[in-house]
Amino acid sequence: MPATPHDLALTTEAPLHAVDAWWRAANYLTVGQIYLRGNALLREPLAPSDIKPRLLGHWGTSPALNLIYAHLNRLVVQRSLNVLYIAGPGHGGPAMVANTWLDHTYSELFPHVTQDGAGMLELFRQFSAPGGIPSHASPGTPGSINEGGELGYSLVHAFGAALDNPDLIVACVVGDGEAETGTLAASWHLNKFLNPDTDGAVLPIINLNGYKIANPSVLARIPESELFELFRGYGYEPILVSGGVNGEDPMLVHSAMADALEYAADRIAEIRRAARSPQPAPRPNWPMIILRTPKGWTGPKEVDGLPVEGTWRAHQVPLANVAENAEHLAMLEEWMRSYRPEELFAADGSPVPMLSSIQPRGDRRMSALPASNGGLLLTDLVLPPLEKQAVDVSVGRGVTAEATRALGSWLADVTRLNPHTFRVFGPDETASNRLDAVYDVTDKQWMGSTEPTDEHLARQGRVIEILSENLIEGLLEGYLLTGRHGLMNSYEAFIHVVDSMFNQHAKWLESAREIPWRRPVASLTYLLSSHVWRQDHNGFSHQDPGFLNHVVNKSPDIVRVYLPPDANTLLVTAEHCFTTRDHINVIVAGKQPAPTFLSLTEARTHGARGISIWDWAGTEQPGAAPDAVIASAGDVPTLEAMAAVTLLRDAIPGISLRFVNVIDLMRLQTSAQHPHGMSSGDFDSIFTTSKPVIFAFHGYPTLIHQLAYKHTNHVNFHVLGFREKGTTTTPFDMLMMNDLDRYRIAIDVVRRVPGLQDRYSSLIEFFEDERSRLRAYAYENGEDSPDVTGWEWMATREGH
């Protein structure tokens, strides 16, 4: 029976020639995207009118990306593998788009970009053009889960994608410039967490082309022996593929690359067999490939008397001013014709049949792999009821509980009910943040050596801890983008480490919403505990609530910020966040013992509203306007605000105070600004149109003003919060340092309610004296006075 084109992939010589043809075709399409707006197939000599008015893009890394893609295609076909391709080098977008057009996925998802000459021209015209596509791998790039705009996250995304994907190989191309970033440099250690029995494999491929945008790369300028020692020290088995210099026959590189990938695939298969045998093997040395080829390989070797190929000059656009410079125009045509497009594309512009011999089919295509569009695989979490963990307040409001400990108990049930699709990630702080109940049902995954004194370390576990917020963020992102669920917990002050990563993920989600074929993924949820108001023992370095300011500036379609005031509202908030899609949820909740004010039923109602008047906590009489509104957002500010109400009620008979609590911070915006924002009427009904509002806030006061400034009564808002005052001191002294204590709240009410300051000036003096007394007590005794720590909300106070 004669061989079909697809059968050729099972021979030896034919597929390498097909690989070379695919590589040349992808290179041609890459160059075309950078330069051309006409004459896509070079049916005529290039003319200035065929050239784009703005030449944008990055050529230098593209030949290697195309080479790797072509060879992985061959491997997928040959061995029926599931391979996810992650392109780490910056701005490799034209290469990735070129390959996805060749394997027909691009035309399937974007039908106007047909797989023919007209579609090829559309492919070229849209690249880095107004209303077109960006120059890096993005949500609109089929098969991508890694935003290529900012460098450093490719390898950690690869490991996150591999978790709980035992049949997956994640081929991650790492740029040698990217390898110098902190996150990427730390990511090499993630092989200590990957279990080859239950997880997939990560195959790192370093694109060692020698240069960044203007400088040599560090890894390219160290001795080869040192390079190998480095990666062996990380626990890998490095495989070197090099060539492409001085006009070397590309087939030599093709042969070496094919051998390297086959060896790597064999080693991965061996590692999996050993791990899945009755006698588990020790932690393996996973294979990796070092691909050393010239930067801008196959492009212009020299331009205007200066070397280009193999130098930093090949990084972006090797030939500039092509439309105005006839010599450059001729060089571009020679460059593109060197790929022999007449051999690669039929008369109608479609790829020739030879390329199909190494083209995977259907979901095996790397650009169509379901894991690269994780929403296709996503299933809802099985969420346990909250009643078992809820704090019973039937005996009276103010029952003491540790909010995150209650959450940890619930998360243990979530983990038990979702043993393959939910993980908890943290920087060595899962127990510190009181979530350690999860260890009743799971361990921390760990493939390193263990000692008898270790606790909760195992080869299989649903918790991953490594002391790098960047790595846990990246792991969670990779896990979510491939169709699973998770939670990241961190100390509040140090979540700033991932500010940029948060930015990139938020931009990914916002862009993905505009792409019809991108299916929604589970939201990324942060739990920030050990927060600013209870870092009195660690001091100023641990005291910073500013991540909230960073978050709220992102797209309102993406970000949500929650400040649950007690344990039951934290449970309700977490339950809600785990049901959301394509959002970034930030939850701030303390871990220290604190009052629980709301029953679970009340917490559900409050959580659904996002903002509520707590009639029972104020002194407002029905039918009469309040003298002032006391509002709070955050657990500690809520306690202080409620204590301030009791101080004022006891000191000023008949004072009418409305108490408002905000759990969903975005409710403070207008409905035109944020989907959770309030209408003007609703806002006015809560905060009034003219009364003073004293707002006790968890974070920087300016944030409340930023959110609420468009509402009518914003002019009467006086916000108390963190004023960048901190040290190692007692919890209450920390509040006094920032003027967020109950006495300062009460003083501000007296000063802002018309007529009160003149009548109760002595009360202000008394409150100031109390602050001085309590500070002196703390400094003398090393702890806060029982007058503060012993404060309780008394049930008999309700109804006043």
TrEMBL record:
Pfam families: XFP, XFP_C, XFP_N
Gene Ontology BP annotations: carbohydrate metabolic process
This enzyme's EC code(s): 4.1.2.-
Cited PROSITE patterns: PHOSPHOKETOLASE_1 (PS60002), PHOSPHOKETOLASE_2 (PS60003)
Cofactors named for this entry: thiamine diphosphate
Domain Xylulose 5-phosphate/Fructose 6-phosphate phosphoketolase C-terminal: start-end pairs: 591-793
PANTHER family xref list: PHOSPHOKETOLASE-RELATED
The family this protein is said to belong to: Belongs to the XFP family.
Protein name: Probable phosphoketolase
